[in-house]
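Hello forum,

I keep getting stuck at the same step: I have a sequence, I want structure tokens, and every attempt I make locally crashes halfway through. Rather than fight my setup again tonight, could one of you with a working pipeline run this one for me? It's a single chain of 249 residues.
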Amino acid sequence: MITSNSTEIKNDEKVTLVYQNTNDSNAVSTVENQVKFGSLRELELLYLALGEEIERIFIGLNSEIKTDALKSARWNYRNPNEMYELASKVPISNNALKELKDKDGPIDKHMVHKKKHENVLISKAVSHGNIWYFKGFEEIAELKSDHLSDHVDGIKLFEALRQATLASLHLNGLQHNGVVALTNFKIDYMKYVELDEPYFIQSIPACEKDGGAMFCVFNIIQNEEIVTRGFLGAYTYRSKEIYLEKRKK
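Reply #2:
Ran it on my machine without issues. Output:
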């Protein structure tokens, strides 16, 4: 869903999906922007993430299927691990990162459930397929470090990822009248996020517009490599009244 808080990238970064057959490792090896899958479920997940950015799908040396054959694919909203395990295969949109590089304005505060704009840690979004990209910032008013650091603090990165999750879910159509409760998360901090280079968040959300179980798989990218990866799982109550009733139990 493209809004005033997002931009759609129209580019030539189309992706070809290729079945990884160990007996025919050279099949369609000349295709650019190629992503390999090893099962029907992997194909479904890649389709759900990449959407219209998929140009062709090969399931054999000369056998091709249309994306229409995958229209019935659905997320398992209670199992973020399956997309998390596959996320490293999802290509990073270099055009999206270029678009974001000079963006310094934050996304609207209501998209990340904040009352003050100075507490927003991410930019407006750029989309590529069903994936959202944000530029992350280093400082917000409500999180002040009590020590000097040569990298972005982990607690600020967690908050940036939380905000990117909320924004992605809303950009995917999640209504604003519910209550979002964090249910589980996994974060792998693989390298420091340095202060002297911009960092970006690649976000793959899975949700229904009216709430329920949902999740967002993410990568933090800096200097063209993934430095942090993980997911946030959540449950969205359809109204504050339902949430408060649940809290009493």
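Helices lie at 40-50, 81-86, 94-101, 154-171, 240-248. If your local run keeps crashing, start a new thread with the error log.
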